[in-house]
Amino acid sequence: MTTTEITNPAVDNGVNVEALLGARAALTEAPPAGQFTFAASNEWLNGTHSRTTVEKFFGLGAAQSHRQPYSVETDHPEIFAAEDNGPTPPEMMLIGLAGCLTAGVASVAQNRSIQLRSVKATVEGNIDVAGILGIDPDVRNGYSGITVRYEIDADASREELQAVVAQSQKRSAVFDVITNPTSVVVEVA
Amino acid sequence: MISTRTTDVVVIGAGQAGLAMSRCLTDRSIDHVVLERSEVANSWTSERWDSLRLLTPNWMSRLPGFSYRGDDPDGYMTALEVAAHLDTYRRSFDAPVRSGVSVTRISSAEGSHVVETSEGPWHCRVVVMATGACSDPHIPAIADEMPARVNQITPIDYRNPGQIGTGGVLVVGASASGLQIADELARAGREVTLAVGDHVRLPRTYRGMDIHWWMDTIGQLDERYDEVEDLARARRLPSLQLVGTPDHRTLGLNTVAAEGVSLVGRLVGRSGDRAQFSGSFANVCTSADLKQQRLLDRCDEYATEFGLDAELGAPERMARTDVGRPALDLDLRGLETIVWATGFRPQYPWLDDSLLDARGRLVHDGGVLPVRGLYVLGLPFLRRRKSSFLDGVGSDARELSEHMMQSLART
Q1: In which residue ranges of chain B is pLDDT below 70?
Q2: Chain B residues with CB inside 8 Å of A177's CB?
Q3: Which pLDDT value is given to residue B368?
Q4: Edge-to-edge order in the sheet of strand B151-153
Q5: Which long-range contacts (CB under 8 A, 24 or more apart) does A138-142 make?
Q6: pLDDT of residue B48
Q7: Are the C-beta atoms of B279 and A178 separated by less than 8 Å?
Q8: Which pLDDT belongs to residue A5?
Q9: How much is the pLDDT for A1?
Q10: How far is CA B201 from CA A64, B107, B223, B283, B295, in A?
Q11: Average pLDDT for consecutive 10-residue bins of chain A (189 residues)?
Q12: B323 vs chain A: nearest CA distance in angstroms?
């Protein structure tokens, strides 16, 4: 029994599961091709305002590129005496988590022949700024906790949708990077 | 003096797998020997903790031509009783076991093999590696980052709480071994933290029947390796969260949490004086809760389909795992012992590296290696979900001995 056969062609969440499974099979045979490097370049504009751009990345053994460069400007809100030219960097983490988990929900649902009609998620992260302001050394800088709440309208039971959301977390790069320590090296050129 | 010995089949290991194979070969009148590094069922007599009992009920100890005949079919054998059961099995057909013989090398050429051993070489046409799945504990690389003064042990070294210091204990891994050891140490008054990754949650009994009765009855244990959707994943599945006790109690994360064990996520790093745990704890618990529910749903569907509802207890729904607010780190300065209950990775030091994949795992198709006449038996999901169970290895042994007959006949 192949996965292709159990995928119901009538279900269409806009995810090409066959291509993903094909990539998985191909990369199982050729593990080095699975080594990707994503890259972003950041430029300070003024104050806490900066612009980060992604365009090129490496994968499948070759240089790759997005259809076009994408830029995001980040800043801090006015209550921090900043100009609020964009989301805060910690909010970008929430954006990354939500985007990653929802992509996973659509993919897993497609693979399980579950037709989605609507998927909405609310993400909340709690931060005690006593950490980043250096007020209390026992308070961490980052989120003390993040909650994600999904509202999904689909042809599936609540348990099936819970399982889809659980599997999405298991295969999520951003979920992993937030929940597990990751080595980060910062240098000055 | 080193002499040269010849036989048709050399079986390595005299545990449940090796003896089951020996019985199948005996039934087919195939000349063979069973080489055992120590004594029959060595792991059960010398490499398990004192309180350990089998996870399957006594009646589920069916081996080729042998079954449990005691007066407690629903009980669970102690480790020593398992060893005695296997020794009785050996004697029942006079298995040709050679004890105290360790294998150092297998060389294969043109359908014949030389098995180098501590008593000299054996020449044979078939080799069956039946050294089991639970002899070589796996310790993750992060162990090297732990403070040198912390006492680090594996379930193979663990015997009882008296052997463990009174300081804090971190048990890494929440499958049967880790959970049982955490439970025992917490009851003995130790301050225990249990690091939990992917796990398989199950009730000991459901609707009045042992969960293994259910899995056997609904056919789950008979699922075959060539039918399961993701075999690699099925083979990696951690052992079931179960304990065999006279009172048939359920042992789970909620149980040990109620005893004071601190539950945390997977151990993922060390930063200074603190061990760090993954924040994915809630998700692994939810996944396990959902998976348990799907199995119980299957049990209920089976009961209804086969008209068993009247004689069984009422369907139950288990409480969700209480994830609370798990700590993300642990102060290593209060820690005295780490128990690495992080599974086993069978080692085959006597095999040529070309028979292992890049991660050192044996390459085989349902126990048949790519080199003619080489077999492995007794690994998780080798040919079916029950392959590594005392009750399940027999079916695999029969099929592989059948395969072997064809192989021997061709020569």
Answers
A1: 1-3, 410-411
A2: none
A3: 97
A4: B151-153, B335-340, B168-172, B192-196, B262-265
A5: A142/A90
A6: 92
A7: yes
A8: 42
A9: 34
A10: 43, 43, 19, 13, 10
A11: 50 88 87 93 97 96 96 96 96 98 97 96 96 86 94 95 96 93 83
A12: 13
B-chain CB neighbours of A167 within 8 Å are: 287
Residue B95, SS3 per DSSP: coil
Nearest chain B CA: its distance from A179 CA (Å): 4
In B164-221, at which residue ranges do the beta strands (DSSP E only) sit?
A: 168-172, 192-196, 200-201, 205-206, 209-210
Strand residue runs (E) in B97-246:
97-99, 103-109, 112-117, 122-124, 126-129, 151-153, 168-172, 192-196, 200-201, 205-206, 209-210, 240-241
Q: Which residue of B has its CA nearest to A160?
A: B290
CA B149 to chain centre: 30
Chain A residue nearest residue B325, CA to CA: A145
**Which CATH architecture does the domain made up of A88-181 adopt?**
2-Layer Sandwich (3.30)
Residue where the block lists tokens 């599936």: A156
Which residues in chain B have Cβ-Cβ distances shorter than 8 Å to A170? 283, 287
Angle between helices B393-410 and B16-27 (to 10 degrees): 50
Which residue in B278, B287, B294 is closest to A180 by CB distance?
A: B278
B218-253: b or e for each residue (b if 16 or more CB lie within 10 Å)? Answer: bebbeeebeebeeeeeebeebbbbbbbeeeeebbbb
Nearest beta carbon to residue A166 from set B227, B265, B287: B287
**pLDDT attached to residue A136:** 84
Chain A residues inside the 8 Å CB shell of B227: 1
Residues A145 and B367: their CA atoms lie apart, in Å, by 46
Distance CA B214, CA B224 (A): 17
Residues on chain A touching B268 (C-beta within 8 angstroms): 180-181
pLDDT computed for residue B370 by the predictor? 94
pLDDT (0 to 100) of residue A2:
38
Which letter does DSSP use for residue A73 in this model? E
Which of A167, A169, A181 faces B280 most closely, judged by CB atoms?
A169
* B375 close to B25: Cβ distance less than 8 angstroms: no
Residues contacting B137, CB < 8 A, separation 6+: B154, B155, B156, B340, B342, B343, B344
**B268 to A181: CB separation less than 8 angstroms, yes or no:** yes
CB contact under 8 A, B280 and A175: yes
Residue A3, min C-alpha distance to chain B (Å): 8
Centroid of chain to Cα A4: 26
Catalogue all structural domains in chain B, each as residue range(s) with its CATH number.
5-135+344-410 (3.50.50.60), 141-340 (3.50.50.60)
